[in-house]
Design goal:
Length: 138
């Protein structure tokens, strides 16, 4: 009952059931997906070493990977050292461009002949000790 002269109270706004249901469904779906992902993660068994190796693919081979500049230089130095120690002139001159006859002559006479005459018997690619200075002979 209304009292004469009183203002009626406004009616409450109608509920929007559609929006509430949509939000509830989205939250339920997100919770279900999270729970499912958690179950899959927990039940996942770790791979054995063989399975990991198979999954990683074949191991790279040395032929597939080109040598670094340092590796190439080290290989050239070892080949030169082996030629010097074996007194192998042909292998010694393999590092010199055949078109540069004068340089090949210098390699032949100055370096191989003199170092062979000195009786060089060992070679190393280790860095020199502190205070070492190069010799002019070889």
């Amino acid at each position: 009952m209304l009292v004469p002269g009183a203002v009626p109270l406004p009616l409450p706004a109608p509920r929007r059931r559609g929006r509430v249901l949509l939000i509830g469904a989205a939250l339920s779906l997100a919770a279900a997906l999270a729970a499912g992902a958690g179950i899959v993660y927990v039940n996942r068994s770790p791979l054995s070493l063989d399975e990991r190796a198979a999954a990683a693919g074949p191991a790279p081979t040395a032929a597939a990977t080109p040598p670094t500049p340092a590796e190439a230089a080290n290989a050239a130095l070892k080949a030169q050292a082996a030629a010097l120690l074996g007194n192998d002139e042909r292998a010694w001159l393999a590092a010199v461009d055949p078109a540069r006859g004068k340089l090949r002559g210098q390699y032949r006479s100055m370096l191989l002949a003199r170092c062979a005459a000195l009786g060089v018997s060992t070679s190393t690619t280790a860095p020199p000790p502190p205070g070492w200075t190069p010799s002019a002979a070889c």
